[in-house]
Design goal:
The complex is a heterodimer of chains A (113) and B (110).
Chain A: E1 4-7, E2 10-13, E3 19-25, E4 31-37, E5 43-50, E6 53-57, E7 64-70, E8 73-78, E9 87-94, E10 103-104, E11 108-112
Parallel strand pairs in A: 2-11
Antiparallel strand pairs in A: 1-3, 3-8, 4-5, 4-9, 5-6, 7-8, 9-10, 9-11
Chain B: E1 4-5, E2 10-14, E3 19-25, E4 32-38, E5 45-51, E6 56-58, E7 62-67, E8 72-77, E9 86-93, E10 98-100, E11 104-109
Parallel strand pairs in B: 2-11
Antiparallel strand pairs in B: 1-3, 3-8, 4-5, 4-9, 6-7, 7-8, 9-10, 9-11
Classes of the chains: A mainly beta (113), B mainly beta (110).
Chain lengths: 113, 110
């Protein structure tokens, strides 16, 4: 059983398109996150949700809209994709909103052409 | 401000030797630190964590050392194995979020 699963694993799309990445965790955790990893492996938080409520929005462009239908799911929708959005996006979860000890998914590699 | 940096971007060691990966942090108020291992094509995987009221913590083949005086964190891996090849990240806890360092790529020579 995969604890934090995200789909798709690879996403190749044209500039200007809209795409979504889905994430689900079966750990019973209250808090979920989206992190972005650039080509130099730098990992930076984008959003965090606790029990479906947004708690961190790290000045991400509003083309990125997270949605949490329930505490086990946190999806990421991206409008009007740009070349600079190309990166690996990681979903993660943690037992509580302290931010400690995150459990990460395997990542979605997004390539915008 | 919040920033975490690493002294070396790459580290190459002989199989069986001990590895030491270093990390400097800037926020003296941080009270929680964590190391992650990321293998190629996978997400970061938890290795070990430590709170600021400790200066050493041991796990299975890994030890984390925290020196608050110089704001330095290190990860020691004993008897390094081929399966230890990965990128290693330190992170410190900011305001309800982990702030990650640059990462160190560890390669193992046979």
């Amino acid at each position: 059983d995969t604890a934090v699963s995200q789909t798709p694993k690879y996403l190749v799309t044209q500039m200007g398109n809209d795409k979504s990445i889905k994430c689900e965790q079966n750990l019973g955790h209250d808090t979920m996150y989206w992190y972005k990893q650039d080509s130099k492996k730098f990992l930076k938080i984008m959003f965090s949700y606790n029990n479906k409520e947004l708690i961190i929005n790290e000045t991400v462009p509003n083309r990125f809209s997270p949605k949490s239908p329930d505490k086990a799911h946190l999806n990421l929708h991206i409008n009007s994709l740009e070349l600079g959005d190309s990166a690996v996006y990681f979903c993660a979860s943690s037992p509580d909103p302290s931010g400690e000890k995150l459990f990460f998914g395997s990542g979605t590699q997004l390539s915008v052409l | 401000g919040e920033s975490v940096g690493l002294h070396l971007p790459t580290l190459s060691v002989q199989e069986g030797d001990n590895s030491i990966i270093n990390c400097a942090y800037s926020n003296s108020a941080s009270d929680y630190f964590i190391w992650y291992k990321q293998e190629s094509g996978k997400g970061p995987q938890f290795i070990i964590d430590i709170r600021s009221n400790m200066d050493k913590r041991q796990g299975q083949r890994v030890t984390v050392l925290l020196n608050k005086t110089v704001k330095h964190l290190s990860l020691q891996i004993a008897a390094t194995q081929p399966g230890d090849s990965a990128v290693y990240f330190c992170a410190e806890l900011g305001a309800q979020k982990l702030v990650f360092g640059q990462g160190t790529r560890l390669t193992i020579n046979p």
